[in-house]
Amino acid sequence: MTWHPRGVLDDRLLDEIAYFTHTLDHIVEAPFDRFIDLSGLAEIHLKVEHVFEIAEERKTSHAGLAKVKSAVYSDKIIGFGVARMYETLMEGSSIDVLAFRVRSAAAAWLGVPIKLLDDVDNPETETFL
Fold this sequence. Notes:
Helix content: 40-55%
CATH class: Alpha Beta
Shape: globular
Number of strands: 6
Order of helices and strands: EEHEEHEHEH
Structural class: alpha/beta
Strand content: 15-25%
Largest sheet: 4 strands, parallel
CATH topology: Transcription Regulator spoIIAA
Number of helices: 4
CATH architecture: 2-Layer Sandwich
Radius of gyration: 13 Å
């Protein structure tokens, strides 16, 4: 699955991303890897403690499910910093998170062609890997 959020990454959008992936984790039969591209964000307004809460919630809700990879890409330093924080918070969980500043490196880690990670014509479209 790829997601290319736009606009402002705030606590509400972070909740939407977490809810969306949590829901898919529990209704899709086969485990799936994910790619979140933060490069289209105009701003980031997150409460740090909220990132901690989301990470703990994701670790708990995904426990017992098959291991998956989650690549988080950002070409901006603040977005990359948030991605690295999430990566660190998710250590030891069944969701293996890695932050990337190079899209091709994310594609290689996920084992998919880079074209699958490119944004599509409709920035709201989700694509399954």
